[in-house]
Amino acid sequence: MNKDPMTVEKDTQAPEAGYRVPDIQGDMNPQPEVVKPNYKASGKLHGKVALITGGDSGIGQAIAVLYAKEGARVAIVYLEADQDAEGTKQMVEKEGSDCLLIKGDVGDPTFATQAVEQTIKKYGQLDILINNAAEQHYCEKLEDITNEQFERTFQTNIFGTFYFSREAIKHLKKGSTIINTTSITAYKGNPELMDYSATKGAILAFTRALSQNKDVLSKQIRINAVAPGPIWTPLIPSSFPKSEVKKFGLNTPMKRPGQPSEVAPAYVYLASDDASYMSGQTIHINGATTVNG
């Protein structure tokens, strides 16, 4: 991607647009790159089943397509973007794999149970859980963060990660894995995304704690995370003012935002046997920004 400003076809900027903007990926200009044209699959996930929250677009969509290329069957959890979810399903099926769409709110513990059960019923197993669903809301002042916004952000981002992990762990076997999407904001913070940054810090701590749990270790289940920097996904135009979208990612050392296609391969690595001695760790994909921890 070049340094030209990002735009969106429709005026869907937050906070005026509300909490969630469905089907926004189809309105993005330029469209995110889902898969690198030169990506070569090698069957790293052959025979595995993955459940991906927030899999309808952005990073989640890119993960789903690469997993399909690598031989996995995937179940996609999404909130309301039917058009984007159907698009992901078509892309997965084009790779010769199977895709189950599950619509619901990850912040609902009952839904988490149902989603895992549907995946098991459909495929008979679960090997990989990707906790990727998230929401964020741009706020310049702490006092402007309402109780509703604060609770919703935590409900989706960290509660959802907890609920799905708790349900999935019952079915995961030796060699299975959970991969959580944290963020560069967990390490650096973001003054306009204070509640979001807090949830991503919680996800990071949860990843490390769960990886050391005796039951998890005895089952030889690996728990890792990926911490993206500024990535061009629907979350950006749906939550930032236009003035911020236009300069999104230009403050990184690489002077550009990243693409979902540049993040998803890390999830392939972490889910594969190549990462068999890796747990409790985080991979940073952020355009050369150095963070500690």
Automatic annotation (TrEMBL):
The keyword Oxidoreductase applies. Keywords: Oxidoreductase. Residues 1-31 are annotated as: Disordered. The keyword Oxidoreductase applies. InterPro entries: NAD(P)-bd_dom_sf, Sc_DH/Rdtase_CS, SDR_fam. Transmembrane segments: none annotated. Residues 1-13 have a biased composition (Basic and acidic residues). One of its GO terms (biological process) is bile acid metabolic process. GO terms for molecular function: oxidoreductase activity, acting on CH-OH group of donors. Belongs to the short-chain dehydrogenases/reductases (SDR) family. This is SDR family oxidoreductase. It comes from Terrilactibacillus tamarindi.
